[in-house]
Design goal:
The structure holds two protein chains of two kinds.
Chain A lengths: L4 H25 L12 H15 L2 H8 L7 H12 L4 E3 L1 H21 L5 H16 L4 H18 L4 H14 L5 E3 H5 L14 E3 L9 E5 L5 E6 L5 E3 L32 E3 L15 H13 L12 E3 L8 H13 L18 H13 L16 H15 L1
Parallel strand pairs in A: 1-8, 3-6
Antiparallel strand pairs in A: 2-7, 4-5
Helix pairs in contact in A: 1-2, 1-5, 1-6, 2-7, 3-10, 6-7
Chain B lengths: L1 E3 L3 E2 L12 E5 L4 E8 L2 E8 L5 E7 L12 E8 L4 E7 L2 E6 L5 E6 L13 E7 L3 E6 L3 E6 L8 E7 L5 E6 L11 E5 L4 E5 L5 E6 L6 E7 L2 E6 L3 E6 L5 E6 L5 E7 L4 E6 L3 E10 L4 E11 L5 E6 L6 E6 L4 E7 L1
The chains are: A mainly alpha, B mainly beta.
Organism (chain B): Labrus bergylta
GO cellular component, one term (chain B): ciliary basal body
Keywords (chain B): Repeat, WD repeat
Amino acid sequence: MSVRTLPLVFINLGGEMLYILDQRLQAHNTSEDNSEKGVWSEYDRKRVMNDIVGTMFNKGFMDELLKPQQLYSHRTLKTVLTRLAHASIMRLNPASMDRLYELMIMAVKYQVFLCPRPRDLLLISYNHIDTIRELVKETPVALNQVEEAHRKIVEVYSSLSEGEFQLLRQTLLIFLSDSHVRVSLFMKNKVQNPNGRFVLSTSGPVPHGVDIPGLIRTFDSKGKEVKQSEFPTGGSYTSPIREGSFELHGDRVIRLGLNMYTVNHPEETHTSKASSVKHTDDSPNLLAKEELNQLARLMGSMKAENTPKSEPYFRINLFTTDEEGEEEEEEAAERTAGGAEEPLFGVLNIQAMQDEQVATELARIAGQFTEGEEQPDDPSSSSSSSNNKGDDLLAMMDHL
Amino acid sequence: MYHKEKSIQIKNSASSLYNNLSVQRIAPRHLTYFTVVHANVVNMVSASWDGLNYSHRQLQSKEPNVATSTSLIMQAAFCVLPSRDLLVVTSQKGIQMYESDGSIMVYWHALDTPETPTAQAIFGRGISAVGQNYICVGVSSGSILVFDVPSKGSNITLSEVLEEHNESITDLASECSGSQECIADLVSADDGGNLYVWKSGEEFQILNKIAGFDMTCSSVKLWKGTVVAGYGTGQIRIYEAVTGILHAEITAHARWIYSLDIAPFSGLLLSAAEDSLVRVWHLTLTPETNSVEVAHLHNECVTDTQICGAKFCDGDGYAFAVTGYDLSEIIRYTQT
């Protein structure tokens, strides 16, 4: 399949991640009691955004992504994206990261699925880049990195044919197959059904370069048209809208890839599974040797330039499960805040373990995403043997 | 004209690949085989005609000497030759040929894959049985591999490599009317919409080239010397194979066409696209006036589904089957 998917995957998934984090951090900023410890100031939020964008668009990382290569598995991508998210002073608990990943995947799936023409995948990516540029416009270093990366993307992708873009899209669709997590924002906007599938309309403008269906034309052997007849299409299609710009700057016209979280309230980014269909690589087997090598190269090329080791990290729980759970969460926070395990960290809130099964599952996931750099004696590193290699890899990455 | 029947559930969802459904009727055993590709697996279902028995099998893309990575499958198609039937599967690593029930692999051909990936993706795509004893398979480089298949056994050999296309092959089709009078017996299509018309033999000959218009031809059929081609623009074009004369042009779909099929005994044409629609047409060829008539007969909308495979289940077009991206079923329709 296509060997050009990775840069677009990172820009689109990473872009969605930044949109969500930006919105969630602003939501946390609107807490009623401003004297509460750990409230995110505008300065903190901007810092997180700049740190993540800086790492994501780092020249070395981008160059690694732009090399022709196969698309990674979900497990590898999630590992790298978690690392990206943690390139700042922010720390996400494993449950938050899982939910974040689900949301990112569904947003990108929506965009790829509904992309009018295969080439428009590029416009969707440019929408993400344009918005990211806005987020870091006051930080010249990060802004410059984004512009440089954008230039390289334009250079690499401008010459691809429509068929090559469709192959790229098909590769992405295979990667995104069988994800049917329901996102409340999508359901509210009527773009997703209760069964988790996206709505595909048979009305509206046709993509640029496509003719409105409905006509049969027949010709004689000299090429002259001899007959024209219409047929019922079963839809109501209209003329295409103007084409978006593929330049570094310009009106992209299509709306897919723009930040859809800006005008919404925090509670609307709920996700729920319609049906649990496991991705085939969810088994506890190790990553294939090739993928481990790819992961090593990628993580090694990510330079966490902006992460000061002496400063405290701030934990954040992105998605509260329900309003009634808040009281339980406060009690849990009080209990653990007094614990000796994490004296250095400002805790915002801890997700209450309401279910033993959930607790076990979270502990297992936590073992896979141990924060090796700031908690070298974390007890979760002694979890089951199949997770040890993952831990070692992550630890190794930090020393590169 | 058609009504929906009970769907066949398959173990995985269909992947978004061109022509992602292959059907073979085994009349003596009252069975129909279906194959649908999902990532690195071919899902095979054998369905009895009385609708009572279904048996499933999965073929994984197994490549020798590749211990770690899995290879994505691009296409699986039944190839029916006078002497035997084979199931051909193409992937990023090579071409596999199985007995048509998927029980035994009889042949494996590796594609040249360099150690470090180059900018050009490498895979096989486009499968067709041609003439008495050939199976042709397209490659992403634009080459077409011609395999010589003996009437039994695994002594399949690569007979020729046709190097005419400059872009990735998308689909291949052989003359399906059964008529001995047709000169052309193979048409090949590529990512630029270019079509080559061939005569098979010890050395394949080019009979004609029909230039594309920079838009992928994703699916192609050859019937009674007529090429029917479906494009990414949603257009269907009908050409006379040997002369390249354009007989008809249909603005058939609002999105990329993914599959075409022809029922050779009745002249019914099936088209399916990412716009969620399947359309049934009728083609009438009048050799005396060298003209083609196209009539639209029927539409089926598979709600919210980007269709990736559509095939008639029999030579008259009495029934057809459909697959869609992310759908774990084969949807069937029968004439009322």
